[in-house]
Batch of 2 targets.
Target 1
Amino acid sequence: MKHKTFFWFILPTFLAMFVFIFLPIISTVLQSIHTPHDKILMTTENCDPFGCKQVTSLDHDAINNLKRNEPLGKFVGLEIYFDRGHLAIKNVNKLWQNNDSVSQFLSSLYDLPFYKALFFTLTFTFTVTPIMLILGFLIALAVNNINQKLRGMVIFFSLLPMIVTPLIGSIILFWMIDSRGIIGTFIQWIFNDPFLSLKASTLLTWIMLIVYGVWHAIPFSFIVFYAGLQTVPKDQIESARIDGASKFQEIIYITLPHLIPLITFVTLIQLMDNFRVFEPIVGFNAEAHATSLSWIIFNDLGGETRQLSSAASSSILTILGVSILLLPILIRTWKDFYIKK
Amino acid sequence: MSNKSIFFLIILILAVGGIYFFSKDQINVALKSDVNGKCNIEARVSIVGNEFPAIQTIGKGVKNCVGSVVKTNLTADHQKIHVAGMSSEPAEYTSAIVANTSIIPLLNNDLIRPLDDLVKSYGNKLKTNQLITINGKVMAVAFMANAQHLIYRKDILEKLNLSVPKTYEEMLLAAKKIREAGLSNYPIGGAYKAGWNLAQEFNNMFIGYGGKHFKENTADPNVNSDAGINALNMMKSLSEFMNPDFLTHDSNATTAEFRAGNVIMMNMWGSRVATLTNAEGVNDEIKNGTDISGPLTVGGGKIPASTLFWDGWTIAKNINDKEAEATFKAMIHAIDPLIIKDENVKNEAVWLIDGYTPTNTARGVFSAVEMKTKPYPMLPYIGLMHSAIGAELADFMQNKEDAKKTLSDIEDAFRAAAKEKGFL
């Protein structure tokens, strides 16, 4: 494509990205370094159906005055990033000094909301991504080898987990694994323990979320790999067979290398997706056992308190996290591109 | 006309006719429901609020008004949209129906207007205790009260010769006996879902032990106290008699457990009593065996371990005076004392409307008022405290840390949030 054609071709996308992605990120950065003005409190007499009493309320005239002068709020720099709700620099420092062993330090770190969310997010990302890559590839191989007539139907059913909206899928499973639900009761029957409950144990909740994550993500890797398998050069496979290669060697030395770009692509997308894990936590009511970075943002924005600065800081930290996660793969792809050129 | 379009026309006529045929009863009811006189308005009325039956009744009443556009948006997510919907100029919503929790963000953001003049002109049917005043100005008009109180199975308690518990200590003893008798493995129910619900149960218990959330007239947290530790330990003891999934059970799930006969005693919202045993599939044993009483006390205290709530309406600040006047008139029309002439409407809530006498389902909330239950504290920073409690309490309930640590975590989490919001 000529440079000029390319420019006109990409312009609408570029404009949309500028307005809907770039500008909001700038605004989020601005919000994360400002907080609302200091509230000016006064004591007033309030009455309701149950009587009157002296309580503290806000002096709106004084606060509005402050707002008019500095509509963005109070500039605080990186203060929110470092407070207890986020990186908690002071608390971490204290924990580091008070705890002798690293494992003790890590377990007390888990008590801080941001690190708690980060632990689960990373665990989720680094278990779900490899498992779904491997399983997706195996399913693709299996489907590729079954009878042509059955294939269409099998592909359709394999895609179902992805068709189901994540939130709905997790709510359905939530009731099935309830201690009175069909899976919950079945597990109690297997282990012969009427007090066993998936939802009451942190470990089991984590496993459940990871299993759900894998179940939901497999169709994506499966369908991409299945498409890739259709393009594996037949003549190479044939010559390998003539040379006496086993089925396993065929896969290792021909199919996999051929699929490397696709594997990189799926890994990239899935790392990004899994790092933003959110719906299963809401759907499974799992916030007592597992929280994620996206859930923290949601929690700050939802409800009646709306901590915008806090949510903005968490968002920026999430963006940084995704960038760090993807950096190695991006660098690799970049290098490959230039080497091939 | 081609065959095809005739076919579609017939289908269309059938569909419209069918819809009319099957819904004409509702249409008639809606037309007839205009019993409480006329309501003429000159400007736009737009309302956002919760969705439970009593508020649906208010919504219907507002829609009887004629003369201008009337819109209602009644949803359980009302408290997530009312601030945004009232911040614009002019505001999308001219009125928000709120409770003493959800009014706080509206007050904090200065989004509702004083109603004194309107009350003077149009509020002659209001009782003084319906007026919510802040710093001497009327900011909301309450129409119903709500509180959590005991709901229990009379039949089971009688079977075991147990008296109705009046304190949480008695509830624990009763639960032990029920479990020993093999009548239920998890006899106690409670909305202990991590987050808002769990924090609300803590607030109840904490107030029952005489705790105060903040140091006098400041935003300095004060939950790390003996009252806090006692409250947590009592909640842990209760949870041992609850379904092991209790941290995922909100009011709906707890209600379902009660309807299924698994829960024998629970601390539950008064607003749920009227519909508790009406649901499909509730057997007669449970239907006839269910009874209610007042809230429980704890630790030998006199003040119940519960909080009083009111529901009422507010009027937006960012609208013109005409719209405010129209909205006020429409809302007054909707809570006209005549509405409780209808038995069904009367049963829907503990109305604060003039002429209301408590129904059988309202006994719990009424005795909560009589027992001098404290209202949910209407402080600008209580919402931040509530979320801090909700976020940090789960660790304690799962035996991951002790009470002292959890309480100090709550205070730390609150301090960080309050600092960000400019309260500390």
Target 2
Amino acid sequence: MAQRILMKGNEAIAEAAIRAGCRHYFGYPITPQTEIAAYMAKKMPKIGGVFLQAESEIASINMVYGAAAAGMRVMTSSSSPGISLKAEGLSYIAGSDVPALVVNVQRGGPGLGGIQPSQSDYFQATKGGGHGDYRMIVLAPASVQEMASLTIKGFNLADKYRMTAMILADGTIGQMMEPISFEDAEIETYEKPWALTGTNGERKHNVVNSLYLKPEALEVTNFQRYERYKHIEQTEAMWEEYMMEDADICVVAFGIASRVAKNAIVAARQEGIKVGLIRPITLWPFPKAVLNKAADQVKGFVSVELSMGQMIEDVRLATECKRPVALCNRCGGMIPSPDEVLESIRNAEKGVF
Amino acid sequence: MAVVFQKPKSLTDLPFHYCPGCPHGIIHRLVAEVMDELGIEGKTIGVAPVGCAVMAYDYFACDMIEAAHGRAPAVATGIKRCRPENVVFTYQGDGDLASIGMAETVHAAARNENITVIFVNNAIYGMTGGQMAPTSLPGQVTQTSPYGRDVNHCGWPIKVCEMLSTLEGPEYLARVAVNNVKNVNAAKKAIKKAFQNQIEGKGFSLVEVVSACPTNWGMTPQKALEWVESDMLPYYPIGVYKDRSAAKEDAK
Amino acid sequence: MAKVTFNTDLCKGCGLCVSACPKKLLVIAEDQINSKGYSPAVMTDMEKCIGCAFCATMCPDCIITVEK
């Protein structure tokens, strides 16, 4: 039996990162993700790594950019307002095709918002955040185990595709404690001939850069990048299906919302309602195919979110509006209760969307 | 006959895109000459700014990265912390370093980050067409201070070396100029020291190079260099503002 | 005995070398135009050149090679 350790969600991210070979962490304090920085501050000096508290989120993401360009597995973590500040760096990292892992333990917004759990950075994570045409791989853990395993997966994918992988978590899973195991972790390594190492007089200089003054060159670069994105959309989407075999209603939820939804689904099944769940694990690439297929099976969808309804737009796009999609949501740091989700499922069963 | 002066090897063959008489070319050459003389081109990683020198990554033959506006010291920090055995330098202008990137500058200095910063102060935003910089002189006419910089309205120019010298952190802060042969030669010595300091692990070394922008100052290159002498240097005096190791030697 | 060579095609005619020469041996050749469209700097009397490299020191485009 696998050895299991009781860990807090945020600490699981930090430990997983270290196990994935990350030896460089740059961050700036913000609630509710501080345990990640604290864990790194304690561990890194003892394993020959670097923990550096930067002067701002802007500086920390640019330190990540430098370290990533130098060929290292590197990460930063923050929460919603801090991610806004990192948006500049995320765009440069995307434009320069260097790999990095960024964690967003979301809190309520906009503005300073609050410090309670939220999923209202869905748009920011999946549609951009920074300027320009680019994507990030967005992984949404729903358990402490996934905080760890998706962090490792995120580093692998970031290196594989030379782009940012974002862990889009929330304050609840960050603070939650659950037993986890690292035994199944698969650490992949990739050659980085583009990295800044010094030419050593043996090769032409490497240049890490996102500036293309010739529009033709910039367009070609974007085309090539989007070919890569297309491949990722076709091959890397991850999701979980729960009680979908005979479902008439499909709940769509990620992260903490999916756990609440599962409770509501069990309760609804006891009432005889055939309802199941599709839980996107990758928010980008969004698991469009499975949702589109589900649209041919169910009579409607319920999107459960800790926001004013952001993922719901992708559900509608993925299902090509073949079936109605209801929104069950709380925001500002509030979480929908199982009863609230159950009520939405009952309404959907009655055809009320 | 022996060659006593030629283009340094640490520069690529690409001709500079700079305006006629722009001292960026002189300063690039000085950095490259220092790399040649110290034999460090193969292990140096340079960080280019946003500004006229944005394409410095094409001119230096060492590995290069292009940073976002003002973030070069943070990018350099990331690289240096990963690769302490490499030599890492930033090349930044006044808008980049002293306005949008002031926080990154101050904190890299406060941490005594073991990097070399080449700071080109020509008192104007060149690339965007001549706007007021954080180092534009009182009364200086620019595109965004068309009636002359009014210090009561938009504040005073920032003296970077003087300001950073109040910090415990940095190892070496020097201001030089490139307006004549004597000053260019002195500038090279300071730049060399700033690189040597890094190689010796001494820490943050910044050389502020008082430069010119003939195009946006609206002067001939010759006139611009005279203006450096008559107007810039009285406000930004040449000198060593901090040299921790030398101060320690003196104290012995 | 010294020799100064200009990579004339890359000269932008800024004249910083002209004012740097202590022997006043350099001029901007107003009657010439290089491939960039500038009138380049030229040496008027190589015999008198002392090889001080002041011209090259002030040249922003690294186009001057000095031999001595």
